[in-house]
Design a protein that fits this description.
The chain is mainly alpha-helical and 360 residues long. The protein is built from 16 helices and no strands.
Length: 360
């Protein structure tokens, strides 16, 4: 059977998204606040882009998964389980390795709860929330995708209008209360939207300038919401605050959806290319999140090692490009070394499915 050639456009986007998430963590988990920077332009840049951008990058990452799943003739429960298993080995390896390392250091207490977190990280979600929510979404896709197909184009579009209106905007207006909420719901909304585009929209008719304009308009909306919360009182001020916080906290807010979906479609309209280097780096990227966002490491990196004031506030916006890039590169090297050592060990131990999944 011919080997599938990976689309390096998508792989490069995955790399950029993972880096963006790390840059977001550098800002949002930093021991110093953005107000530590003296320049107003620097504070504006951090507050409008890197401070709230994390969930939007996550939403785009989820949208990539949905794009390919929706393009398959059939997505069975068996395929969903295989997809979850493909990431579970890496997750379990880092959970056990990092968990016991920090237990030996005394940073994590030995307790039944912590041991369950270490050996079942995907079920508990304590170490990496994204892994848990993503796994639940993948498991539900064999049921969601056929249901959306059965709706037909017209009802599918009506569902999108309803979900985006209610969960993308109305839930941030103080007068409204939406009884269903959560990140899994947000991921499902992305699924509904992306699958419609995949099935019913001809990308050749989509103008890339409109997509860029959509991104710009969304960021203008974020800026208006950020400053509006401080300059207006009452219902309007609260709505602005909720919209900004929604962009920060939800991949299905109106601003997050506009940016994430537009970025994906812009990427898909770029010329197709294949690069072994890009594909190889993309395969290592997931581990950068697992390593850098593990509780004790996250605290050490952004609170102890790289506070804004320690790095130097005079660097301004250069900080967010320099520090996360260095950490990102180190995490890539660690994951690459793990895979090399894993392959070396497997050669001597012999084939073992569970060991292969954990080490490769």
């Amino acid at each position: 059977m011919a080997k599938t050639i990976r689309d390096s456009r998508i792989e490069l986007l995955r790399i950029v998204l993972m880096w963006t998430v790390m840059a977001h963590h550098f800002v949002v988990h930093n021991a110093d606040s953005v107000s530590a920077f003296p320049g107003s332009f620097t504070r504006f840049f951090y507050n409008i882009f890197f401070y709230p951008i994390g969930r939007t990058a996550v939403g785009c990452f989820v949208a990539i998964t949905i794009w390919f799943v929706a393009g398959k003739v059939e997505y069975s429960i068996n395929k969903a389980v295989k997809r979850i298993a493909s990431i579970e080995g890496t997750v379990l390896f880092y959970s056990i390795a990092l968990g016991f390392f920090f237990i030996l250091r005394g940073d994590i207490q030995v307790s039944p709860t912590n041991l369950i977190d270490i050996f079942a990280p995907t079920l508990t979600g304590s170490s990496w929330w994204f892994v848990t929510v993503y796994a639940w979404l993948v498991f539900l896709l064999p049921f969601i995708i056929p249901a959306l197909h059965a709706l037909g184009q017209k009802l599918h579009l009506y569902l999108i209008v309803f979900l985006v209106s209610v969960f993308g905007f109305l839930r941030y207006v103080p007068l409204f209360w939406i009884p269903i909420d959560g990140l899994l719901v947000d991921f499902i909304i992305i699924c509904v939207l992306v699958s419609y585009i995949r099935w019913y929209v001809d990308l050749s008719t989509v103008d890339i300038r409109c997509l860029v304009a959509c991104c710009i308009a969304a960021f203008v909306g974020v800026a208006i919401s950020f400053y509006g919360q401080f300059h207006f009182d009452g219902l309007l001020g609260s709505t602005f605050a909720n919209l900004y916080n929604g962009f920060f906290g939800s991949p299905a807010s109106i601003f997050s959806l506009a940016i994430a979906i537009s970025v994906l479609l812009i990427d898909l309209k770029m010329p197709h290319f294949s690069s072994r280097f890009v594909n190889a780096i993309a395969k290592l990227c997931f581990a950068t999140y697992l390593i850098s966002d593990y509780g004790p490491i996250q605290s050490w990196l952004w609170s102890s090692l790289f506070p804004f004031t320690r790095v130097g506030v005079g660097l301004g916006i250069l900080q967010v490009f320099f520090v996360p890039t260095v950490v990102f590169a180190i995490c890539l090297m660690l994951e690459g070394l793990r895979k090399l050592l894993g392959g070396f060990i497997i050669r001597f131990i012999g084939p073992c499915d569970l060991l292969n999944k954990a080490l490769s």
